[in-house]
Automatic annotation (TrEMBL):
Gene3D superfamilies: 3.60.21.10. It comes from Pseudolactococcus reticulitermitis. NCBIfam families: yfcE. One of its GO terms (molecular function) is hydrolase activity. This is Phosphoesterase. The lineage of its organism: Bacteria, Bacillati, Bacillota, Bacilli, Lactobacillales.
Length: 172
């Protein structure tokens, strides 16, 4: 199980709550940027985090690649890959890094789609939601051989109706 959050914009309490809830059960906990916290903050122990356009601490990487649940995962905030205008640059970067997943923030809205064989997922925002779902949220990904089980949860850790689904993938 992979936990993905983004765009907390200074609200460290929810980041800490999500970390505490999953730190002993998730293979990875990922923050896709715009935390507005220091890169040296102890909250990041056990969390993979990248730099967003509102993060001014140069201690955060712009992108990172990690391995979790037998998947290679490309993580970025998204602004450097033009996610406002489509996912092709993000997908290309993920494929260049031999990644099956590309996780990103920046848009503050839930997105989960397979593009060129890559799962592209935005977990929404845990503090400032935008778009069709005005719900503070994060995502849980459970990869299987045949699909990605994706569940978006609100900050009370309850599943969000209509945001629970499986996306098929090509066989490994």
């Amino acid at each position: 199980m992979i936990i993905v959050m983004s765009d907390s914009h200074g609200e460290s309490k929810i980041v800490q709550e999500i970390k505490a809830r999953y730190q002993n059960t998730a293979s990875a906990i990922i923050h896709c940027g715009d935390s507005e916290l220091d890169a040296t903050d102890a909250i990041w122990d056990g969390i993979t985090v990248v730099k967003g356009n509102c993060d001014f601490d140069d201690g955060f990487p712009e992108t990172t690649v990690l391995q979790a649940d037998h998947e290679r995962i490309f993580v970025t905030h998204g602004h450097l890959f033009g996610v406002n205008f489509g996912l092709s640059r993000l997908t290309t970067a993920a494929r260049e890094n031999n990644c099956e997943m590309a996780l990103f923030g920046h848009l503050h809205t839930p997105i989960a789609t397979i593009e060129a064989g890559v799962l592209c997922l935005n977990p929404g925002s845990v503090s400032q939601p935008r778009g069709g779902y005005n719900i503070k949220m994060y995502a849980k990904i459970e990869p299987t051989r045949k699909c990605y089980r994706i569940s978006y949860l609100d900050i009370d850790h309850q599943p969000i109706p209509n945001l629970q689904f499986e996306l098929p993938r090509s066989s490994k």
